[in-house]
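Researcher: Good morning. I'm working through a list of sequences from a screen, and I'd like to move beyond sequence-only analysis. For each chain I'm collecting a predicted structure so we can compare shapes side by side. This is the next one on the list. No need for commentary yet; just the structure.
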Amino acid sequence: MTDLPPLVDKIKSYNPDFNPQIVEAAIAFAKDKHEGQTRSSGEPYYTHPVAVAAILAEMKLDLGSILTAILHDTIEDTDATYDDLKDKFGSEVADLVDGVSKLTRIESKTVEGKQAENFRKLLLAMSEDIRVLLVKLADRLHNMRTIEGIKNPEKRRRIALETLEIYVPLAERIGVHKIKGELEDLAFSILNPEARESIAKRLAFLRAEGTDLVDDIIAELKKALEDVGIKAEISGREKTGYSIWKKMQRKNVAFEQLSDIMAFRIVVGTPEQCYAALGLIHSRYPSIPGRFKDYISTPKPNGYRSIHTTVMGPARQRIEIQIRTSEMHYQADMGVAAHWAYKQGSRPMVQDIKKYRWLRELLEILEQEQQPEDFWENTKLELFQEHVFAFSPKGDLIELPSGATPIDFAYAIHSDIGDRCVGAKINGRIAPLNSRLANGDQVDIITSKTQQPSPTWERFVVTGKARSHIRKFIRGQQRNEYVTLGKAMLQKIFRQEGYEFSEKGVSGILKQFKAEENDDIYARIGSGTLVARDAFKAIFPAHKTEIVKRPSVDMDQAVMVRPLSGS
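Model: Good morning. Structure tokens for this chain:
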């Protein structure tokens, strides 16, 4: 089988003991099930899942992930069933393939609704096993690499935009920067080809002009570190075209006005050497205030660890320097995928992957929001935003989107804390609840048992979790008002018709109106979606309202009553 040797060789390079027959069986199964199906490019369809598997093999992922990639479209696009996969490849692979398949079973009809529902399903599947997302990211990466096979330019733009809005930030969140960077660049080339080409040409010019400068800086840093006994691998690179373009948009400046296009990476042996290298660099080059971040002592929630600093280089040009160990470097490229990389005699625990706070919070928001579009709007911006790191009085690190307030902080700790928040201290001082938090702030939330969320909070909170809880409370408060009003309206009808009001009678029509409890009936009446008399008629179908006729008046016998005169 021509597809087998390259994939097997990749897997054997990190897992020499695996049995290639299981991979051969999976490819044969996929080839058989996708028989007659072709991609937009005209290639046999089965070549796509094999290519997806190869991407995961390059990341050295476990065999379960590889098999899932090969089989990931069989349930959705062929007559293969979950039981077929379970019988041939085991329940673990069948569950993973089923998880990937569920993402595409979307019944929403609108494009926005479809995108929102897709995002919901993706998060739900991720909560069961994060490898579902890793397969989906590799799937999207191969689709983007081969997107030119799609002839419809509008469809290409839609796929690229979805890639940039959903898959890039998710790849960033789980720390898979290797995939994130390529997805970003491929989407950028579709959505703004002129800008990408322009930046690429400018970078090529700088590269040609500044080759000696980059080499000189690397050589200088390497010698300085070796002089103090630190062995290091040092590399220099330009920042990506998309990140440069974003900075140009954010700062509203031209390419020539950017001063920190170059970035250098120093990889050393131990965390202690990271800090020693930092001290050495700051002693040689002036550091830029406000451009230092220590993600070793306070790692990002996705596990990323590194020291970032920006200094004024030898040519009076700003250069960004990242300092990390080789283990941290591997984690930075692979992110959560590092947990699932093949390790001799060991395997990761799914519950360890679930420790990601952001995933737990997104799932909590998902439970709160009723409409997919609301959930999507509440989370997609949060995925894109820069983040700030604040501390609780106990020293717990809380990551929040830039612009977050004490209310956002309170809800990040616990929904009950957010609901009962009446005030906050930032760095020991009382601060307004709409204050914007900064990196390193210590936030102490003041609560009261009698406090309830205020509708005005929604105007200034920025996290989806805070917004969804506030909206839930407002909806609940409004529903209570509808319940009270609707019940009073129905009781009035009972009195008018001479009946004693009965909760039992209302319970008897729940099924008819597809309601779960009496309050649902009252809320519908109160909100105007159900007429009170219609509910009454459903309770008493045999009852007929009597029409009282008034006696007619013989106009010939009528007596005119004149108004009293004022005299």
